[in-house]
Specification:
The complex is a heterodimer of chains A (192) and B (267). Chain A is mainly alpha-helical. In chain A, 73% of the residues lie in helices and 0% in strands. Chain A has one domain. In chain B, strand 2 and strand 3 form a beta hairpin. The chains are: A mainly alpha (192), B alpha+beta (267).
Chain lengths: 192, 267
């Protein structure tokens, strides 16, 4: 049991998908202008990553492995993720229009979020079982949400600062993200 | 070479793709959401600035509200009359033409006319400056600080700082009202564009302190009110205000005002 909890916490902070694995940087920088939208993006990503890690595990274990075509995992996972995002979008639009409005354009954007593919690949490389894959997926996604919301909070404050001209816009955001990564480095080695 | 090496991947991935495709097709039917076909049409007729000037969350929300009958056809201040006519055509309804409105900064206290209390060297932002003791560096605490918070809020490039005071460019202004809520001094008002005679002061101070602080402030002498033949300008709480419903733009108040606080506005 404790191994699972450690895996979960490890995925959130120690191996934070953005700040120590450097995956999913594109939405991390692109959708972090406001805390509200960052939270929406985080929620959508959490949903998709958790589901994608389950389904990609099943596809890998039940289709690719028996047929000995594991070299196709990248394309198969992308297929899974892309269809899953489409499905999730439709279901949310039908069942919860308000959530659909809140997530807006971020849902389709997740298709090209490398963090989603990254989690599926890490699950496969580490030979996680179904439960471990799910926990790792959920933890990673919550880690992503944590990182993007933190950055959005910082960016909202930075807006009001007197930033030197060459650093305005993305440069200062990248510097901020770098400092956040250094801070998260403090967690390294906490969980083996 | 084993032919299976080609067939298995092709079949399995193709099958997977087909399966997902069918699943999605089925889901698209099952979870289809009925959208009124008028909504995207109305949406296309809108300017698409998503400024929120109509009071809805964006152009999409406004289009939906129009079709549902919750919003007026001419509710988009950015599109103006043309846009309202286009929407009316789509909806099959008549629309009343509305006069163009513009934002207007009710302060004329330029650098040479309004006194400063101190030299401000802080963050170049009105909201920040307004939080300080004495509400910014201007001697008149109602006056335009000229640090450009409204410029940041304006999505249409319709505001300039001229001589230390924000000035709206009426040809670019769409009256979305973003600057109205951005100004910490509440200096900006939406006025009819045709009404050029306007009070260029927002100070509620007593006449003497207005005079000490600014050469063009309203000292609430009441000459405009007394001389207006149309009862269209009134002095209340130490500030003259034009009643745009009654004003006929005769300009008598402009001539009578001893401090030039009432202006015939032109760019």
């Amino acid at each position: 049991m404790s191994a699972y909890i450690l895996l979960f916490i490890g995925a959130i902070v120690v191996n934070n998908v953005v700040l120590s694995r450097f995956l999913g940087i594109c939405p991390f920088l692109g959708v972090s202008k406001k805390v509200e939208t960052a939270l929406g993006m985080g929620m959508a990503v959490t949903f998709v990553i958790t589901l994608a890690s389950i389904i990609s595990y099943l596809v890998y274990g039940l289709i690719l492995k028996p047929l000995e075509i594991t070299f196709l995992y990248t394309i198969a996972f992308i297929l899974v993720i892309a269809s899953l995002v489409q499905l999730v979008e439709m279901v949310i639009q039908k069942t919860s229009p308000s959530l659909y409005q809140a997530l807006g354009v971020y849902l389709p954007l997740i298709t090209t979020n490398c963090a989603v593919l990254g989690v599926a690949v890490i699950n496969m490389q580490k030979n996680y079982n179904l439960l471990q894959s799910t926990i790792n997926g959920a933890g990673t996604a919550i880690g992503f949400t944590l990182a993007i919301v933190l950055l959005a909070g910082l960016r909202e404050k930075i807006e009001y600062n007197d930033i030197p001209k060459p650093f305005k816009g993305y440069p200062i955001v990248l510097v901020t993200a770098g400092l956040m990564a250094i801070a998260f480095l403090g967690f390294a080695g906490l969980i083996k | 070479m084993n032919i299976n090496n080609i067939i298995f991947p092709a079949l399995s991935l193709g099958g997977l793709g087909l399966l997902f495709g069918l699943g999605l097709g089925f889901a698209a039917k099952k979870f289809a959401v009925q959208v009124n076909p008028l909504v995207p049409k109305v949406r296309d007729a809108l300017p698409g600035a998503n400024c929120g000037g109509c009071g809805f969350a964006g152009c999409d929300a406004f289009a939906k509200a129009v079709v549902d009958g919750h919003a007026p056809l001419n509710g988009c201040p950015v599109g103006g009359g043309e846009c309202a006519t286009a929407i009316a055509a789509i909806m099959g309804m008549e629309v009343k033409q509305t006069a163009k409105t513009v934002a207007y900064v009710k302060c004329n206290g330029t650098c040479d006319k309004a006194k400063e209390k101190y030299v401000y060297e802080g963050v170049m932002d009105c909201v920040s400056a307004n939080m300080l003791q004495g509400k910014g560096s201007k001697a008149c605490e109602y006056g335009c600080l000229g640090l450009g918070s409204c410029i940041k809020a304006c999505q249409f490039g319709a505001i300039d700082i001229v001589d230390g005071v924000a000035v709206i460019l009426p040809e670019k202004c769409v009256a979305c009202g973003m600057c109205v809520s951005a100004c910490p001094k509440n200096l900006i008002e939406i006025v009819p564009d045709a009404m050029k005679v306007r009070v260029a002061c927002s100070s509620f101070d007593k006449g003497k302190s207005v005079k000490d602080n600014c050469a063009v402030g309203c000292i609430s002498c009441g000459l405009c009110q007394k001389n207006c033949p149309y009862d269209a300008i009134h002095v209340n709480n130490g500030l003259a205000k034009v009643d745009y419903d009654k004003c006929v733009q005769c300009g008598i108040c402009v001539d009578k005002c001893p401090t030039d606080a009432i202006v015939r506005y032109q760019i």
